[in-house]
Amino acid sequence: MNIKDLYIDYFVSKGHKQIPSAPIVPENDPSVLFNTAGMQPLIPYLMGIKHPYGTRLVDYQKCIRTNDLDSIGDTTRYTFLEMLGNWSLGDYFKKESIGYSFEFLTKVLNIPVEKLAVTCFIGDDVIPRDEESANIWRSLGIKDKRIAFLGREDNFWIAGEFGPCGPDTEIFYFRSEDPVPEVFDPNDERWVEIWNNVFMQYSKNSDGTITDLPHKNVDTGMGVERITAVLEGVNDNYKASIWKNLISEIEKLSGVNYEGNEESIRIIADHIRSAVFIAADEAGIKPSNTDQGYILRRLIRRLIRHAKKLGIDLNSNFEEKLALIVINDYKKYYKELEKNANVVLEVLKNEKIKFNRTLEKGLKEFEKCIRNIDCKYLNKDLAFKLYDTYGFPIELTVEVADEHGMIVDVDGFYEKFKAHQDLSRAGSKEKFKGGLSGDGEMETKYHTATHLLNAALKIVVNKDVHQKGSNITPERMRFDFSCDHKLSDEEKKKTEELVNKWINQGLDVKVAEMSKEDALKSGAECMFIDKYPDIVTVYSIGDVSKELCGGPHVANTKELGKFKIVKEEASSAGVRRIKAVLE
Ligand code: SER
């Protein structure tokens, strides 16, 4: 039986409700590109909002982690992963949580207690030592020598800088043929972490203080890939059953064996799986030069280059064959894969064709540079040319250069890039390190237009209209709002006129930091009050709009151009959706 089924069944038998995997692109959280942990979609509920499914939840969540993207190729890393998670939202706490984990590992998965060890939080001036968890472990039969106490670096968990957090207890498995040492040494790499139980009872605020959450929660996470590899006794995670079909097909297509070509094969396998999941996501991500689209582009282009390296015919439909294996392997658990299969195949094929056209020529530029034996240094002009003319993401240039023992002027590249794109504008936030980050100019304008639209709807339609969601691309904005009826042509027209009137008035956009309490008192609009830290940023536009928001925004509404509603439709019960553009 699949580990996901065993896990869900076990926690359902303990009164948990299964919740569906959330989309890979967070719906209402512009601060991250992808869901990176099972708990991310649950943040508002950990902060105190009531969850419609109750207080005991279980799921498997698709996640994308891009921080390691360029080091994929070893035995343990991936960009896509599935997280098993169970949650208590103010329901059970440490005793039950640890008890369930222990029972699942030792009784359902039949892992010998002898092979397990745990870490607990050592305590500091703010958060006390977690002797309670250690005692629970002892009572279950974990020996003292197998319990290590560690500090914040290791045993305190938070998703980003702020938000719900708490001490955790991590479970380790001894992954080796060697005899299990009596004393657990967390630095001994034969011990691998398999499960993390976080006791989320605090919230970290933007001023660095830690306060109690409305109730004590449990958030646990166990990676499917790792636990599967551990259970199957392989020492290279890519040798686990999860990868079997995909890697066999890569071997078949290239005519080479996994042994001896591990790095490229792992990169192709990992990247095609991630690309399929990103392209199949309901968010409709397409390869581009910003945000999620840029990650998708990098994944596809990098896997194509490694396919070429292994001798796969790039003019064949190899990408389709590989994508179909991913879809087939996962469709039982993720319905969107089959539903959006055509979109996925098209995205892959189009991007391949685009890149194929210039890949050869780009690689020739490299060779020219290498032939000049003095050239150990790839200058910014060539790096930018490879990007601009041949479509090489800078990360790919660095990788190819590295294979030839060359160094790239990456900083110089970014200078040129920024000068070219003017992406360094004030207020633009870097959402991922090293990437061609973008709250680009258009996205920034759409952010501001979103606030104006929200304010206009309150006047034209109803003062009780509230934002329910928003999504911005460089091409358009989408805005979901509570409303019980289809907007009439008259309402749409008036809304448009009002937004354009404010744009033409040239209203200043001002930003202020204040306490959440003051922000609410001042009448600032906000979607999810509990999601925000105690000190919030409030953007005001003239005196027509005031909203909690992370920005970025334009300085004056004059910059926006002409606002036009292109579509108004139902989104879900009691929620309407407007698509609009700035011309
Ligand atoms: N949030 C924790 C993690 O991702 C447990 O789910 O490890």
Question: Which key terms come to mind for this protein?
Answer:
583 residues, alpha+beta, BirA Bifunctional Protein, domain 2, 4 domains, nine-stranded mixed beta sheet, four-stranded antiparallel beta sheet, 18 helices, 39% helix, globular, binds serine
What Rg do the Cα atoms give?
26 Å
Mean pLDDT: 90
Q: Which structural class do the helices and strands define?
A: alpha+beta
CATH domain class name of the largest domain: Alpha Beta
Oligomer: single chain
Give the structure's gist in a few sentences.
The chain has 4 domains: 3-235, BirA Bifunctional Protein, domain 2; 240-367; 373-428; 441-582, Threonyl-trna Synthetase, Chain A, domain 2 (Threonyl-tRNA Synthetase, Chain A, domain 2), CATH 3.30.980.10. 39% of the residues lie in helices and 22% in strands.
